[in-house]
Amino acid sequence: MKTFYILDDPGRDKHFHLYLLSGLRKAGFEPLVVYFCGDPKSYLHQQGIPTHSLHLTPRTYKNFNPWPVLKMASLIKERQPAILHVQRHRPLVYTALALKILRRKIPLLYTIRLSRLVRTPARRLAFSFIKKQVSYVIAVSRGAADDFRKRTGFPDERLIVIPNGIDPEPYQLSLPRAEARERFSLPEGFLFGMVARFRKAKDHLGLLEAFARALPQMPEAFLVLAGDGPLEDTIRRRVRELQLADRVIFTGRLSPQEVPYLLRTLDVFVHPTFREGMPAAVLEAMAAGLPIIATEAEGIVDIFETERSFGKLLPCGDRDALASALSFFYSLPQERLREMGEEARKRLEEGFTREQMVARNVDLYRRALHEGENP
Asked: What share of the chain in percent tops pLDDT 70?
């Protein structure tokens, strides 16, 4: 059964997309990834997923123009998909308008990953115009779902929470920690680590401040930062200003294949973000059996809603609380850290695996198709 999985460009390719698309194929669907812009020979294409691009220029795509609507309508008419699954706001608007032009009733699913997606009057107006075309909205966290409901009035029975999920197996390495550290030339001692793009929302600067405050109580502690991004120079400069050059280690951007090995080097994973959907980085660290220090950002709150003790959840931007958490985890015996890491693995397996994410989406696809056949 043909389906469209619609993204704005290949730069939005993520593991979550590959997991879901592979699962849909196993369930008997035939997904085609449709990009509005960019080269269709993307990461997903390289993994064997069929892709197609409308080859719009970024300017045509971003400045509202009827051409994206007409091209999408033409593709729908040509390929005759049984279901449409859209990621992000602008592709949703264009796709819904294409359905209006065609006067076709095809199930349209829309995945939201963050809150405040319809924060502006223009976005709310656009969504109100296409609202009837949307069969279901899939939110990756309860926070995103609640925000969307309040801003749009979208009905509860059509707003479904399906958390992101990952494959835990690649992160469960038997490699000794010492060997993993040799692989990255990392020192002995207690390693805190973070894997994230260097962007304001991730609050690396707050983490550096907290680490500097806690360091007098952590004589053998180091902080490992993996990633790159627009704030890298600013963060490196702040490391020098705080005189942390001998305690903060930059690994650069890692390939997905390298991340499990880096996680194996760490004692505790830290993720002090301001805004988050359902972060792969935290799920991957849990799969690797690491205790988690994180902040109360949307999807992370969902992860921590359990009686299992596998880390600490802090207010966003609270550097004093973060410093206290760092020193607290540093003081714990290794056996206790291992116990918390095992609890993190169990929590992941309770609701955040690839299989669970795929099964919930497949069920929703089938429900939407059944409703379309029996209106």
From this structure: 99
